């Protein structure tokens, strides 16, 4: 099954008590309990880095399992300690097994409140699809959620933590729910300085879900020359050249770049493996700095 395009309007959750329901949360009671999928789903595509076919089959999992990738029979938990590379995407590993480009799928799962799932992957990367998370949101919506008889253990940020690298920085602050405040600053006429700020769980995530991966033409040519990003195309990446956007349809929103950075930040935060009560602030940050921040916060909270 290939998921259809999502309806980007918020969806009303149905019912209360433990049982199947639609995304996203509208009930505080339901947010106390762990959730898995009601039904499995399969999504096929190609890998951004290899250009090879890639597929993901996501199955419900018992309470307490967490989100776990299965790569050639090896289990790789979607947790901070499994991160082995952050250069072009977030890569998780265990032994010799590797899975990369996990961040958009994990962002969608985290925002939707899917605590427990087995994620079978065929190939070394999660398919890039259209470069955004909207296929994942649609697939999760179609699969539905099922509450489980075990409470969540939210991660509450009690003290502010900050990490820096050059002029980039990232901070975590105490907050009553999970929020992000992300700023990018690229010297490009179609990006410049952009900030996106707000809550990112439940239906709020729809504001980020459609924002695509982006890059610059010069970087793309350099990556291709190195045999990287073989699957990258205008079908899955917004490409900026010196004075514009190469994609025929243009941008999905004027601030698509910062929305995508916020999406990536949510995907990386999902590696904390729990609902987060905290506010993530990031300035010109990326996967590596996010990882440093979460490690620092774990040591300090
Ligand atoms: Zn991304």
Count of discrete alpha- or pi-helical segments spanning 4 or more residues: 7
**CA-CA gap between termini:** 42 Å
Total separate domains: 2
Count the E strands. 20
Task: Tell me the helix content.
Answer: 10-25%
Task: Give an overview of the whole structure.
This protein is α+β, with helices and mostly antiparallel strands. The chain has two domains: 20-151, 2-Layer Sandwich (Ribosomal Protein S5, domain 2), CATH 3.30.230; 155-300, lpxc deacetylase, domain 2 (lpxc deacetylase, domain 1, 2-Layer Sandwich), CATH 3.30.1700. Helices cover 22% and strands 34% of the residues. Strands 12, 13, 14, 15, 16 and 20 form a six-stranded mixed β-sheet that branches. Strands 3-4-10-5-6 form a five-stranded mixed β-sheet, covered by helices on one side. Strands 1-11-2 form a three-stranded antiparallel β-sheet. The chain is globular and about 55 Å long. The structure holds zinc ion. Zinc ion (ZN) binds at residues 103-104, 213, 260, 264.
């Amino acid at each position: 099954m290939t998921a259809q395009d999502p309806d980007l309007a918020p969806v009303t959750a149905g019912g209360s008590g433990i049982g199947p329901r639609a995304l996203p949360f509208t009930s505080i009671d339901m947010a106390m309990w762990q959730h898995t999928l009601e039904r499995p789903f399969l999504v096929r595509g190609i890998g951004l880095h290899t250009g090879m076919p890639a597929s993901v089959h996501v199955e419900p999992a018992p309470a307490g399992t967490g989100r776990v990738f299965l790569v050639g029979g090896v289990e790789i938990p979607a947790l901070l300690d499994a991160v082995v590379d952050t250069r072009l995407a977030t890569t998780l590993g265990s032994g010799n097994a590797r899975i990369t480009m996990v961040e958009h799928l994990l962002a969608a799962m985290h925002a939707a409140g899917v605590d427990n799932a087995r994620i079978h992957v065929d190939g070394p990367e999660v398919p890039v699809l259209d470069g955004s998370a909207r296929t994942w949101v649609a697939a999760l919506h179609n699969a539905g959620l099922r509450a489980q008889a075990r409470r969540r253990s939210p991660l509450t940020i009690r003290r502010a933590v900050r990490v820096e690298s050059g002029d980039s920085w990232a901070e975590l602050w105490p907050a009553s729910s999970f929020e992000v405040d992300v700023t990018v600053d690229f010297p490009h006429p179609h990006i410049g300085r952009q900030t996106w700020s707000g809550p990112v769980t439940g239906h709020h995530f729809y504001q980020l879900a459609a924002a695509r991966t982006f890059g610059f033409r010069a970087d793309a040519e350099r990556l291709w020359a190195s045999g990287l990003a073989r699957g990258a195309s205008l079908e899955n990446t917004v490409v900026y050249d010196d004075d514009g956007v190469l994609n025929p349809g243009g941008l999905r929103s004027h601030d698509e770049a910062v929305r995508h950075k916020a999406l990536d930040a949510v995907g990386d935060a999902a590696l904390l493996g729990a609902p987060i009560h905290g506010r993530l602030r990031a300035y010109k940050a990326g996967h590596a700095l996010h990882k440093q921040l979460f490690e620092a916060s774990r040591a300090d909270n």
